[in-house]
Amino acid sequence: MKPDILLTNIGQVATLQGYSDSPKTGAEMKELSIIEGGAIAIKDGIITAVGTTAEVLAHITEMPDLPPLEFPDMLATPGFIDSHTHLTFGGSRENDFAMKQSGKSYMEILAAGGGILNTLKSTRSATQEQLTSNAFSYAESMLTSGTTTIEAKSGYGLNIESELKMLKSIDDLRQKIPAELVSTFLGAHAIPPEFEGRPDGYVDLVINEMIPAVTDAGLATFCDVFCERGVFDVDQSRNILRAAKCSGMKLKVHADEIVQLGGAELAAEMGATSADHLLMASDDGLEAMLKTGTIATLLPATAFSLNTNYADGRKMIDMGLPVALATDFNPNCANESIFFTIALACYKMKMQPREALSAVTINAAHALDMGGMLGSLEIGKRADILILDCPNPEYLTWRFGVNLVHTVVSNGRVIHTRLGP
Tens digits of per-residue pLDDT, 100-114? Predict the structure, then answer.
């Protein structure tokens, strides 16, 4: 075998192997299957060998044209997978911060015309090209910080034209950046002003016009809904999710973020791939998710930006729920960093560094129903690989607030590397 790229003499390789069919749970989340002095061979964008340097070299019949790349004292991991972002939108919302600092809640800011409704105006007025350009800037920053797969939601247009425009901008971005993008339709993100006082009328629009338009255009893999008091109640959310499921989309739910409404129970009932946020989820809701295998995607930077309590990640792991982590990058939480997300999860949700690494790789892959392709360093999987300038997983939370990426390999290509040794 002649590989295209050969990575050798890596201090530690955290393969996270063995969980392609189902996510890690419980004590499994601390098992990273680390290889000391490891090596990885890549051919045509796929991992063809992984093991100790001696083992991998024994499989090489001809050395690659590019000299082998050596990374002593460094840590190799799968590429980070950000399974919950609002990547594309118009404008920005730094002015909302003053309202937050004055003590106004998220829902109060929304009622005052800020929040989602502020972004709605900017998004509706932006061109598709402007949305793509904005998203490119954010995605490039994520990629150079180790995120090789990004889920990206619509949800700031809230009419057919603008929702399709957002999803098309994500499609455009696929041609411009070497990262995997997964599109999610979130037309049920808020009630737009023109439907004020008529939420059921907007639900009908989402079900009868938006979902068919998105499906016909093939623009989204998932459908999400913001199931929350003052937004979409459980019955409205159920009807939207049911229609999306019948149209062939997979399901996600913004669940129990601000109040305990029953979003976790709904996610389990509908067979959602993941329920996200879960700050206020009930024990019954978590137990229902446990029975159905719905992944708990936790977003600690959202709690940080809202200055509120954090989801009980420790409890969820200990009860056996599969837990993923994501940035929730959005106009109200402009967090592009998985490193910051990992630090928050460990400091504020009592997760262990190795659990957090599982949560942003293999479990995040399963939160996108892509565990068979992504999330671990195994033969036959796509070569999305990070070389981190740290000696072990625990270092990730010891040295927080910095980008520890040395080299990013995305789909078998070295797309970013740091100058120097």
Answer: 788 888 778 877 777
